[in-house]
Design a protein that fits this description.
110 residues; alpha+beta; 3 helices; 24% strand; 3-stranded antiparallel β-sheet
Length: 110
């Protein structure tokens, strides 16, 4: 009798565990996007070229990330975004979550 309940509950627990692992992975992806945006904004603030700042941000960013830069008079902004897909065949029916990290910095004198 207990075997039937375990047989029903075990797949549910496995799916729940996979969801929790995915949420931790999404959190780590967010931190990487945020770090990449900060590196790109710092490079732009030091008056490096846009290509150099994008290359620096791409080194830190997750694979397949999109890097956008904006420069105003004295403020630069960098946004890094990537689609975090769920792992495994069971969770592949869920949509991807877009994770975005943003950073801004004032231009340095000189």
């Amino acid at each position: 009798m207990v075997t039937a309940e375990i047989a029903v509950a075990l797949p549910t627990l496995m799916v729940l565990l996979a969801l929790l692992v995915w949420m931790v992975a999404v959190g780590a992806t967010y931190v990487r996007c945020l770090d990449a945006a900060r590196e790109g904004a710092r490079a732009l603030a030091r008056n490096e070229s846009v290509a150099a700042s994008r290359a620096l941000a791409a080194e830190v960013a997750p694979n397949g990330a999109r890097i956008d830069t904006q420069a105003d008079r004295d403020l630069v902004r960098v946004s890094v975004s990537v689609a975090a897909r769920p792992p495994g065949p069971v969770l592949s029916v869920l949509p991807a979550i877009t994770v975005t990290g943003n950073a801004a910095s004032l231009l340095e004198e000189g």
